[in-house]
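Sequence only, no structure available. Ideas?
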Amino acid sequence: MSNNLRLFFFSILVFIIVSVSVSFAEVVLYDNIGLTREEITITVETKGRYFSKGGEVVRFVAEGKSIGNALSGGDGFAYRLFTPKKTGITQISVIYGKNRDTGIILSLRKGSSIVFVDVEGSLLSDSFSRKPIEKGREAIQNIIKKYPVVYLHSGTLGTKSIKQWLKKNSFPESAVMSWDNGSLFRDLKEKGFRLKAIIGSQAVIESAAEYKPLALSFDEFEGATHVKDWKEIEKRLK
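Reply:
I predicted one. Tokens follow.
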């Protein structure tokens, strides 16, 4: 095969890849937690099929009202400051072209005690079947009446997949946050929140040990109380 012919086929291949990438677009909105009546950053990522896409206009909507636009940077991320006026959940939507995503801002008073639930470490029976552990939903429905609950992403599923799974299985709505090897706990402590309890895997619990939360796990290890089921967890959080 001649060099010219190879170059021709290579050019066709590149054209196909680029065309497919351009035709696919996605916008991802990340949940966040902040203080009521204080500015909080809403973070969005604009994506093509294979890479993040910069220079894209994203429209931000809070509780059905537009709060402005932002341009994504070279890394594909766009940001918008927002001040929640109420304590609790504020529904956020973002629009990029024909694409839309939804998420929440969880705003709490300073000093609020948060219960963290490691989804992959305490709610999923296993990552393959993706069946919820028995009585988990009912327990969280009761716990969330007393304490704000934050769901943690700590494994391979990704926050978007976890959001979809929680919704599909009718779990109470709340923020889904990346555990980020424990840096989330540090950030929230610096904002003035308390870590009431962490329910999950050994790695997640150990990353918050310095804050001394109530640590509950279905696994047995030093530094956490071993529990048999979600009924026991609910009792310990009364």
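The two ends are 75 Å apart (CA to CA).
Hope that gets you unstuck.
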